[in-house]
Amino acid sequence: MRFLVQRVTEASVTVDNNVTGKIGKGYLVLIGITHNDTKDNADYLINKLLNLRVFCDENDKMNLNINQVKGELLLVSQFTLYANTSHGNRPDFLEAAKPAYAEELYEYIIQKCKDKGIKVQTGLFGADMKVHLLNDGPVTIMLEK
User: Fold this and answer.
1) In the prediction, which pLDDT does 10 show?
2) pLDDT tens-digit readout, 111-134
3) Pairing status of strand 72-77 against strand 62-64
4) Residue 39 has what pLDDT?
5) pTM of the predicted model, to two decimals?
6) How far is 64 from 9, CA to CA, in rounded Å?
7) Euclidean distance between CA atoms 24 and 143, whole angstroms
8) Catalytic-labelled residue, pool 80, 85, 122, 140
9) pLDDT over 70 for what percent of the chain?
10) Active site residue 9
11) CA–CA separation, 2 vs 79, rounded Å?
12) Which CATH number belongs to the domain containing residue 56 in this structure?
């Protein structure tokens, strides 16, 4: 499982000209799921995500987590995080989980983050999405389990 975390001042997802999710300060998280991922993998990464200290404190040091800054999450499924380009120039996605399995874990991640008291917005699983973001820093971190 992979979470590509981008610290943002704002982000949104649009599907068919309709905004499905929009946040202010927080994280845009692109979520990639592979075949052997489990809820335990998800729990580990959720814990890492919510405790990640990359927001600046009063001394301008990255020392605060998303809860401490009252940040928001925009969670977007992203099977292309498991692209394999080792054999030519056209990627294959054989390592990405099958859609039904990936969607189940994606929905689990969304609910667990909501259960932690974080404001959560989402993309639309499997849709052609347009993602807009203003990366803050820029700060982009890959979390993997």
Assistant:
1) 98
2) 999 999 999 999 999 999 999 999
3) unpaired
4) 98
5) 0.96
6) 15
7) 22
8) 80
9) 100
10) no
11) 10
12) 3.50.80.10
- DSSP labels for the chain? -EEEEEEEEEEEEEETTEEEEEESSEEEEEEE-BTT--HHHHHHHHHHHHH---EE-TTS-EEE-TTTTT-EEEEEE-GGGG-B-SSSSS-B-TTBPPHHHHHHHHHHHHHHHHHTT-EEEE--TTS--EEEEEEEEEEEEEEE-
Mean pLDDT of all residues belonging to the chain: 97
Structural domain span for residue 104 = 2-144
d(CA 46, CA 25): 18
The number of domains in the chain is: 1
Q: What are the residue ranges in the chain where pLDDT is below 70?
A: none
